[in-house]
Specification:
Blueprint lengths: L4 H27 L5 H29 L2 H18 L3 H28 L4
Helix pairs in contact: 1-2, 1-4, 2-3, 3-4
């Protein structure tokens, strides 16, 4: 699929925003084990809800742009939620990092188009 500059800009925007958010949750999953016992359940629930929102954003990006890399990232984020549900926070963090791969691929493809048109 050949991206037009306008579509590349949209794809790039979605990808960069998702990359930042995914990096944030990957780090936050690592903090849960260090919390007090009474704080862990709430923190876990909040992070799973945020991850669910990021998965929804990724699905929306795929629908809006037609870029399947966003769907791939969504699938990985669903795995992150499953790991977190079973209190495997270190693995959830690592898996969140894996969601960066398809998102970065989408960003790079868009960046190439924008750069070739002198827009970046």
């Amino acid at each position: 699929m050949t991206l037009e500059p306008k579509d590349a800009l949209t794809q790039y925007h979605f990808a960069e925003r998702l990359k930042l958010d995914i990096m944030m949750i990957a780090h936050q999953y690592l903090t849960i084990p260090s919390l007090k016992k009474e704080e862990k359940a709430g923190a876990k629930r909040v992070l799973i809800n945020i991850t669910e929102a990021l998965a929804a954003d990724s699905r929306a990006a795929a629908a809006f742009t037609g870029c399947d890399e966003f769907n791939k990232a969504c699938g990985v984020l669903e795995e992150v939620m499953n790991l977190a549900e079973s209190n495997q926070f270190g693995l959830a963090s690592e898996k969140a990092g894996e969601a960066m791969i398809p998102i970065t691929t989408a960003a790079a493809a868009a960046w190439e188009v924008l750069h070739s048109h002198g827009l970046l």
